[in-house]
Amino acid sequence: xxxxxxxxxxADGVVQSVPDDWLQQWEDFMVAPGDTxxxxxxxxxxxxxxxxxxxxxTASIEKVxxxxxxxxxxxxVLEMWKKIILDEEIFALIQKIRNAGTFVGLATNQHHYxxxxxxxxxxxxxxxxxxxxxxxIGYKKPSSEYFSYxxxxxxxxxxxxxxxxxxxxxxxxxQNLGINAARYHMKEGVGRLSDLLASYGIKCS
Length: 205
Description:
The chain has 205 residues and is an alpha/beta fold. It has helices spanning 22-27, 36-47, 57-67, 74-79, 88-99, 112-120, 124-127, 134-137, 144-154, 168-175, 190-199, and strands at 6-9, 16-17, 85-86, 103-108, 130-133, 161-165, 180-183.
């Protein structure tokens, strides 16, 4: 069994989620006839470079809305990135891990606009020892640069790190750097997460 000193959790799909109809809510902005799928695609394409620190996120979104004659909806559109649901049972488990003496970090791809909300309104820094966020690092998962940054920050052998993510691609990216990594989605339940952590010798009490 590996000697784990640090556990890293992904955010979306692991400790937090969005409303079940979140994608539908994006399409609902298109009240006039139009290609709703293309509109959503344009939004996410505009968002993508900001995940590695590109500035002026709001300006990028405004550009898309102007194209679709939806600029008046800018405030409602920006609120979409704040629709985050925390899993209270998983956060309680994370606190047990920390209280037992294990370092716990958040490893997530986010842009500054959403990160600011997660820090200031959801108080993520109160729940994790450190946040490793792509927009601050300049690289995102599953790149080797992203995981190398975290290894250097932790200043430990990669074999002492456990990373939990719902994306197989991200799990493989971490494993390529020698990090113990496991795939998990919050829909599997907190019991499954507890068992996963126990299999790596992580104390949850």
